[in-house]
Amino acid sequence: MQLTVLSAVVPLLSIALAKTTKIDVGEGGLKFDPDTVTADKGDVLEFHFYPEDHSVAQSTFDKPCIADETGVWSGFMPVTTGVGNETFSVTINSTDPLWLYCSQGQHCNAGMAMVVNEPKSGNTLAAYKAAAKDAKPTSPQGNYHGGVVASATNSTSNSTSASTSASSTPSGTASTQGSGTSTAPASTSTTGAAVKLETAGLAVLGLAGLVVGGMI
């Protein structure tokens, strides 16, 4: 019985300890900020969009700026001013490198790309951006997939909603968490999220301690 309870606690502990990384898309130029992220399984990438019209698309290292049709795709996120009123969140399910870029026009050629879990040598982001200069960027067909589009409840800008239907199934290092219509609003307050996360983590740790203590 104790082993059964403990086996149920471990997954909950992983969820409680997962972190969310906020990534700004197009703020202050053609860039992702940050453009290099280290993430564990279960961690979430939360993309916030700035003027004028950007996207998040997945490619491979060998084909920079060329869309992986079954990978991550936010759709285009046009914004008039400030930060957009929708976010795009991607849950990581592997620690393999994940290459992302903006498929708008020649943004990728100009270096608007990022990597999750960058290799220490060889296939680096700098190498990806260098190869991207001569690429012919493409965008995935259809609307968003490989992530969740949600309302940024604290947004103060004017933006146009992203398309809200899709049929592709995501792959790669992003989880198959759904596509199509937008889900419940995502909070942009990292402080509040951190407090909730810490509280949940302590609660799960306490439960795990009680279970383990009872086994000794």
Tell me the span between the first and last alpha carbons: 14 Å
Helical amount among residues, as a percent range? 10-25%
Overall morphology? globular
Q: Got a strand count?
A: 12
Along the chain, the helix and strand elements come as HEEEEEEEEEEHEEH
Going by helix content, strand content and strand pairing, the class is alpha+beta
- Main beta sheet: strand number and arrangement? 5 strands, mixed
How would you state the average pLDDT, rounded? 77
Major beta sheet, strand line-up: 2-1-4-8-11
Strand composition percent = 15-25%
Low-pLDDT sequence parts: 2-10, 154-172, 181-205, 207-216
| Count of discrete alpha- or pi-helical segments spanning 4 or more residues | 3
- Estimated radius of gyration: 19 Å
What does this structure look like?
The structure is a single chain. This protein has 216 residues and is of the alpha+beta class. It is 23% helix and 21% strand. It has three helices and twelve strands. It has helices spanning 2-17, 125-132, 190-215, and strands spanning 20-25, 32-33, 36-37, 44-49, 53-54, 57-59, 77-81, 86-91, 98-101, 113-116, 148-151, 158-159. The strands form three sheets. Strands 2-1-4-8-11 form a five-stranded mixed beta sheet, with no helix packed on it. The chain has a four-stranded mixed beta sheet with strand order 3-10-9-6, with helices on one face. Helix 1 runs antiparallel to helix 3. The longest helix is centred in the C-terminal third of the chain and has 26 residues, at 190-215.
